[in-house]
Amino acid sequence: MVIRFTTETHDRIAAAIAAAEARTAGEIFCVLAGQVSSYRDVSLGWAAAAALILPLGLIPLGFEPGWIPGFADGWEAAHLAAREVSTGQALGAYAVIQAVVFLAVYLVTRLPPVTRRMTPRAIRRRRVRAAAMQQFLAHGLHVTEGRTGVLLFAALADHQVEVVADEGIHARVDPSVWADAAEALSRGLKRDDAAAGFEAAVGLCGGVLAEHFPPRPDNPNELADRLVVI
User: Fold this and answer.
1) What's the pLDDT tens digit per position in 169-216?
2) Confidence at residue 86, expressed as pLDDT on a 0 to 100 scale
3) With contact defined as beta carbons under 8 Å apart, do 207 and 184 qualify?
4) What is the pLDDT of residue 81?
5) Are 39 and 115 a contacting pair, CB within 8 Å?
6) Rounded to an integer, what distance in angstroms lies between the CA atom of residue 119 and that of residue 174?
7) What are the beta bridge partners of residue 203?
8) How many other CB atoms are there within 10 angstroms of residue 126's CB atom?
9) What is the DSSP letter of 163?
10) Which residues, in sequence order, are bridge partners of residue 228?
11) b/e per residue 191-200 (b: at least 16 CB within 10 A)
């Protein structure tokens, strides 16, 4: 997925946040990440499993060291020695095959589309949520007055969206509101229109914030109205 971030995109999202926050004492913050994890450990796991399991399929086929060039093509001096040499050659050849399988699977699973498909959804979800919480805390949404901060977080490479609401509002709002906001953001990103996605999600969040937390007399803007791209 490639999203074009122009000045207009940032301005539209900032304007949507400002308009939403004008009707509420809450705070809305938007973050978009390219990728929250390299998932290298997942690739290593697939490669190790493949290296252990796939070569076993050669054994019923009568695997011999001679299948690999350079193995088992020398002279054998005696019967007992030959048995030891053959065993050593077979183990060496098997180890070479395992190494080749490991490297091939690892390299293939490092391709971004393959990495995403080979990474269990639960793992991607946990890491995106952890990254979203990190951003929530890093930008101080947890210390807003009234604890009414809402974070809209999207991870492009992971194809995941998270909405994090602080405890001040989370306990008073139907969880379906956040699901609707996440779906609105996701639809915009799928259409390669990040501005529209964030605008829709910000509007939904702003509406529920205005309903439960109307603006205070002073109504300070505690967080910058902008999209942060990391």
Assistant:
1) 877 888 888 999 999 999 998 988 888 999 999 999 999 999 888 888
2) 62
3) no
4) 52
5) yes
6) 31
7) none
8) 12
9) E
10) 31
11) eebbbbbbbb
Residue 174, token pair as written in the block: 């139907």
CB within 8 Å of 54: residues ≥ 6 apart = 101
Q: Identify any residues that bridge with 153 across adjacent strands, giving them in sequence order.
A: 31, 162
Give dist(CA 102, CA 124) in Å, integer.
Answer: 23
pTM of the model: 0.79
- Residue 204 burial (C-beta neighbours within 10 Å; 0-12, 13-18, 19+): buried
Residue for token digits 């053959």? 86
Starting at the earlier edge strand, list the strands of the sheet with 27-33: 160-165, 149-155, 27-33, 227-229
- Residue 82 vs residues 74, 78, 141: alpha-carbon distances, Å: 10, 6, 72
Q: Which residue has the tokens 């999209």?
A: 227
Helix, strand or coil, per DSSP, at residue 113: helix
Tokens for 172, please give them: 């008073």
Strand partners, 29: 151
Q: Of 204, 121, 164, whose CA–CA distance to 31 is shortest?
A: 164
